Amino acid sequence: MSPNSSPFRIAPEDLALISRSEGFQILRSYLASDAAYEYVGPDSMGKQWLISKYSFCGFHESSDSQVRDTWLLHRDVLHALIVPVAELFREASILAESATCSRRREDLELAYRGDARGAYLWLQCFLADEEDWVFTRGCPACAVEKILHTESHIRFVLAATHLSSSHELPYEGRPALPTLSCWLDSLHHALDEDSFWGPGYFDYIEPKAVHLEEGIQDLITQCFQIEALISSPTTAQTPGQQLILHPSLSRAAPEHTRRHGMRIRKSRMAKKQMRMLKEEERWLQQIVCYFWKALNPITTPAKFEIEIQPRRPQA
After folding, report:
1. Domain-by-domain residue ranges, the chain?
2. Do the bridges between strand 49-52 and strand 37-40 make them parallel or antiparallel, or are there none, so unpaired?
3. Per-residue pLDDT tens over the stretch 96-116
4. Which range, of 85-94, 187-196, 210-219, 225-234, averages the lowest pLDDT?
5. What is the distance between the alpha carbons of residues 130 and 84, in angstroms, rounded to a whole number?
6. Is a pLDDT exceeding 90 seen at residue 209?
7. Which one, of 92, 80, 205, 116, lies nearest residue 153 by Cα?
8. Distance from the first to the final alpha carbon of the chain
């Protein structure tokens, strides 16, 4: 294998299945479109330059076109796996701000309990340091290679892969991303062939990834519960009245909270954040809806049912 080539492999039959997915085609078109470019500068002559946010670095640019195409494919698969998890975390944070009436990072975890809180804390720490990588900015090949850099990266990608494979995600005939369970075999093979991790490491890390994925599933469920609380009509309540916790939440609450209830209000900032969705986020919100709709098709919040809109190049 060339030192410039991807350590991951996708079987031809899996590749054919992924390539037929309309949702995956939309994602690939977006990442390759003019919307993936941004202006930089001005330079010493006062001129601005339009460059790609996803261009190859000097080392990988020297690869032949077939190798670069493979890097791009694997980057797009990675993007499809991990960006929805980052968006789920963002929504969980917005709901936590409303539930705790606080924007302090250390307070937001208090909105959740059990494995959901553990998953939220893990994602909070990991995503704070890896925003560029999670959104696959920069060199596509470097983004793919970074999967194998640390145990945390491997665990995150494995958990995201399990999450994408947990449910079928079609949604009212709209384009959906395909299940990407084939990436499990690809990652298993890459770890076995890696000189640092080696054979046997996949079996060691997968239970940790499954535990994280289960925590994320629980986090989604608790987000539904918080959404139901903060969206409940309050017109008949006076400022002194309190909103009683949902029974599933009150089990984890202190005794005095269970008896007298907890006052919860929605902040203006949280309302504004949920209203002011940028066009670039609309497609990602649809992905979030696939996960949430699959988990709870009856109570999926209407605010997540967003049509996929064509993307426009950034001026």
Report:
1. 12-232+243-304
2. antiparallel
3. 999 999 889 889 999 999 999
4. 225-234
5. 15
6. yes
7. 205
8. 41
Alpha-carbon distance 98 to 227, whole Å? 9
Q: How confident is the model at residue 262, as a pLDDT? A: 42
| Residue 37: its H or E element | strand 37-40
The model's pLDDT over 220-267, given as tens digits with 9 standing for 90+, comes to: 999 999 988 887 655 344 343 333 333 333 333 344 434 344 444 555
The H-assigned helical ranges of the chain are: 12-19, 22-32, 58-61, 65-100, 105-108, 114-129, 131-134, 140-145, 151-165, 182-193, 201-230, 247-250, 255-260, 268-275, 279-295
Q: Is the pLDDT of residue 159 over 90?
A: yes
How much is the pLDDT for 6? 95
Alpha carbons 271 and 91: distance in angstroms, whole number: 12
Looking at the DSSP bridge assignments, the partners of residue 243 are 262
Q: Is the C-alpha dihedral spanning 255, 260, 261, 266 positive or negative?
A: negative
d(CA 239, CA 111) in angstroms, rounded, equals 22
Give which of 301, 243, 277, 261 is closest to 90, Cα–Cα. Answer: 277
> What's the angle, vertex CA 135, arms to CA 18 and CA 160, rounded to 5?
55
Is 221 in contact with 92 (CB distance < 8 Å)? no
Check residue 49 and report its DSSP letter: E
Round to whole Å and give the CA distance between 214 and 100.
Answer: 24
Note the pTM of the prediction, 2 decimals.
0.69
